[in-house]
C-alpha cells in the first residue's frame, strides 16, 4: 500500500479482534437435580471422603460453583459424578446442606477466626479420665460451653473408674443435669455403645484418657476405616483431623484426635445463657454488655435476682461463663 493510499484509511478499515467476553456471563448455577446425598466422613487437603446412602465410600472434590464454602466432617452434601467408590475415581460436591448443629473452636481466646470442627452431631461425648491423667474441670467446662452454643447435647464419659471414684467430680455438675457414663478399662463400654446407637456423636478428650481404647472397642475395624480416609490426600495420614467412623449397630462416632486447644472467642456470654431457659428470660433485662458474672464484675446483673431459687445452678452457669477467661486448664 502506497503512502497516498494509507492516508485515505478511516476507522471502518481497522480490524477489531473480538474480546473473550463476547457472551454475557450467566449467574445461573446448575441445579444438579441428579445429585446423590452423602455424609462427609473425612477431609484432607482439598479432598473429601464421603459415605453415600448406598454404603459406598467416595472421594470427592468441591465443585467450582461452591467457591470457598467450608465443608467439614458431618456435613450432608450433594454429590455428582462417579459415585461408585471404585479406586482412582473422583466425584464433585455440589451442595452443602443446612447444619443442625456445629462444634466450633478458635485457636485461642483472642483469635477472631472460628473453625467448624464437626457438623450435624447430636451429642458431644466428653471423654475424661478419673486418674492418670487426673480430670481437668476447665476442659469439661469449655466443652460444655461449646456444646450448648453449638446445639449439641453434652455427655460426660468418665474412664478408668477402676482407678478412682467419680463422686467428687460428678458433684460439680449435678446442677447442670449432664448425662454421665462411667467406664472401666477392663470392661466393655456397653452403656456408651447404647448411648451412641443410631446417632451422630462426636468424641473429644485429651491424650491418655482412653478415648482411642473406647473407639477401638466401639468400632473393631477403626484402624482400617481411618486408613481408607487417610488415602484421600496422597497418602498423608489424618491423625490430626476429625474422622467419622460407622458404628456396627448403626450410627456414627466422630473421633477428634487433633483438637489440642479450645478457644471460645466466638462465643458470647449471651450464647451460653440462652442454653438455660430458666435464666435466659432474666438475662434479657441485664445492662448492655453484661457478662452475667455478677458483682463486682457485672453490677446490675439480673441473674442475681434468681440466686434464692437456684443457687447451685447459677453457680454452675457462672463457672461456665468464667471458663471463657483462660486456656490454662485445657491446653496440653
From TrEMBL:
Keywords: GTP-binding, Nucleotide-binding. InterPro entries: G_CP_dom (IPR030378), P-loop_NTPase (IPR027417), Ribosome_biogen_GTPase_RsgA (IPR004881), RsgA_GTPase_dom (IPR010914). Residues 17-27 have a biased composition (Basic residues). Residues 119-260 form the EngC GTPase domain. GO terms for molecular function: GTP binding; GTPase activity. Residues 1-29 are annotated as: Disordered. The keyword GTP-binding applies. The keyword Membrane does not apply. Pfam families: RsgA_GTPase. Residues 110-262 form the CP-type G domain. Residues 1-16 have a biased composition (Basic and acidic residues). This is Ribosome biogenesis GTPase. It comes from Lentzea waywayandensis.
Amino acid at each position: 500500500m502506497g503512502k497516498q493510499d494509507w492516508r485515505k484509511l478511516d476507522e471502518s478499515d481497522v480490524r477489531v479482534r473480538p474480546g473473550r467476553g463476547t457472551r454475557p456471563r450467566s449467574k445461573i448455577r446448575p441445579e444438579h437435580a441428579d445429585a446423590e446425598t452423602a455424609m462427609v466422613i473425612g477431609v484432607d487437603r482439598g479432598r473429601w471422603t464421603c459415605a453415600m446412602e448406598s454404603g459406598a465410600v467416595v472421594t470427592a472434590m468441591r465443585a467450582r460453583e461452591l467457591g470457598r464454602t467450608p465443608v467439614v466432617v458431618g456435613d450432608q452434601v450433594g454429590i455428582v459424578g462417579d459415585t461408585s467408590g471404585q479406586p482412582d475415581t473422583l466425584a464433585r460436591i455440589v451442595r452443602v446442606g443446612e447444619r443442625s448443629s456445629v462444634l466450633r473452636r478458635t485457636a485461642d481466646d483472642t483469635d477472631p477466626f472460628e473453625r467448624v470442627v464437626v457438623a450435624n452431631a447430636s451429642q458431644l461425648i466428653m471423654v475424661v479420665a478419673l486418674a492418670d491423667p487426673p480430670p481437668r474441670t476447665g476442659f469439661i467446662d469449655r466443652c460444655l460451653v461449646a456444646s450448648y452454643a453449638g446445639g449439641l447435647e453434652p455427655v460426660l464419659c468418665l474412664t478408668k473408674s477402676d482407678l478412682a471414684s467419680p463422686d467428687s467430680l460428678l458433684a460439680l455438675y449435678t446442677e447442670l443435669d449432664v448425662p454421665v457414663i462411667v467406664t472401666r478399662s477392663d470392661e466393655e463400654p456397653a452403656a456408651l455403645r447404647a448411648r451412641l446407637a443410631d446417632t451422630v456423636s462426636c468424641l473429644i478428650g485429651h491424650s491418655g484418657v482412653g478415648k482411642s481404647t473406647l473407639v477401638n472397642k466401639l468400632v473393631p475395624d477403626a484402624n482400617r476405616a481411618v486408613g481408607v480416609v487417610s488415602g484421600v490426600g496422597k497418602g498423608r495420614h489424618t491423625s490430626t483431623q476429625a474422622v467419622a467412623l460407622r458404628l456396627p449397630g448403626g450410627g456414627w462416632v466422630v473421633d477428634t484426635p487433633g483438637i489440642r486447644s479450645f478457644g471460645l472467642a466466638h462465643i458470647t456470654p449471651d450464647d451460653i445463657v440462652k442454653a438455660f431457659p430458666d435464666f435466659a428470660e432474666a438475662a434479657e433485662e441485664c445492662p448492655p454488655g453484661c457478662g452475667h458474672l455478677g458483682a463486682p464484675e457485672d453490677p446490675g446483673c439480673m441473674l442475681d435476682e434468681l440466686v434464692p431459687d437456684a443457687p447451685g445452678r447459677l453457680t454452675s452457669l457462672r463457672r461456665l461463663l468464667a471458663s471463657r477467661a483462660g486456656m490454662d486448664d485445657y491446653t496440653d
